[in-house]
Amino acid sequence: MSRRAGVPLVINDRIDIALATDADGVHVGQSDMPVSIARKLLGPDKIIGVSAKTPEQAKKAAEEGADYLGSGAVYPTKTKVVTINLGIDGLVKVCQSSSLPVVAIGGISTENLAEVMSTGLPSGVAIVSAVFDQPDVADATRKLRTALETYRRGEKSGGIRVDDGKAS
Ligand SMILES: Cc1ncc(COP(=O)(O)OP(=O)(O)O)c(N)n1
Ligand SMILES: Cc1nc(C(=O)O)sc1CCOP(=O)(O)O
């Protein structure tokens, strides 16, 4: 279904499920299967994402062959109880330390999406509660998508000035 919609399906942690379902890739954390083994199991064409909270973790993931990084928690989140709040500063440090695309995660919603994207650094955002804790999941998704697209259009046309990590 996600393939029909043109959306890659990346399975969190479970390489066995990624293999069994011929998913597009897997996302692993620092205490999950090492990237090198995931790559051997999945082959060269699948997507491997790695959670990185520090520049050191980001560099290591890149050296090991990750395709993208997930970095957070950018803001406080109730979805994942045990994490570290990196804030925008921590996210920026990870992004600046790597040429890999970075997906920002943790507490992201329509209210703070522009702040995250206005750093000009992450390639995208990963969101749980701002979609799934909403009364109308489809409507919440549309609003987030519109906010992201509006931001990206403004960025392309030079309509949003990025200064000190703040959009204006
Ligand atoms: C983009 C992105 N970032 C992080 C995760 C994984 O979250 P989680 O499994 O809770 O944490 P780690 O064990 O990887 O630190 C994800 N799926 N996507
Ligand atoms: C899955 C996950 N990983 C995180 C990390 O910090 O690595 S935060 C998080 C939960 C994201 O959910 P929400 O959008 O509801 O905050």
Key traits:
single chain; 168 residues; alpha/beta; TIM Barrel; 2 domains; 6-stranded parallel sheet; two-stranded antiparallel ribbon; 8 strands; disordered C terminus; binds the ligand Cc1ncc(COP(=O)(O)OP(=O)(O)O)c(N)n1; binds ligand 3NM; transferase; Aldolase_TIM; thiamine biosynthesis; magnesium; EC 2.5.1.3
Summarize the structure.
Its EC number is 2.5.1.3. By secondary structure, the protein is α/β, with parallel strands linked by helices. It is built from seven helices and eight strands, in the order E-H-E-H-E-H-E-H-E-H-E-H-H-E-E.
- How far apart lie the N and C ends? 39 Å
The biggest beta sheet is recorded as: 6 strands, parallel
Q: So, the CATH homologous superfamily of the largest domain?
A: Aldolase class I
| CATH domain class of the largest domain | Alpha Beta
Protein name: thiamine phosphate synthase
EC number: 2.5.1.3
Pathway: Cofactor biosynthesis; thiamine diphosphate biosynthesis; thiamine phosphate from 4-amino-2-methyl-5-diphosphomethylpyrimidine and 4-methyl-5-(2-phosphoethyl)-thiazole: step 1/1
InterPro entries: Aldolase_TIM, ThiamineP_synth_sf, ThiamineP_synth_TenI, TMP_synthase
Q: Could you explain the architecture of this structure?
A:
The protein is built from 7 helices and 8 strands; from the N terminus they run E-H-E-H-E-H-E-H-E-H-E-H-H-E-E. Mean pLDDT is 91; it is low at 159-168. The protein has 2 domains: 1-51, no CATH class; 73-167, Aldolase class I (TIM Barrel). The radius of gyration is 16 Å and the shape is globular. The chain has a 6-stranded parallel sheet. A two-stranded antiparallel sheet has the order 7-8. The chain is of the alpha/beta class and 168 residues long. The termini are far apart. Bound molecules: the ligand Cc1ncc(COP(=O)(O)OP(=O)(O)O)c(N)n1 and the ligand Cc1nc(C(=O)O)sc1CCOP(=O)(O)O.
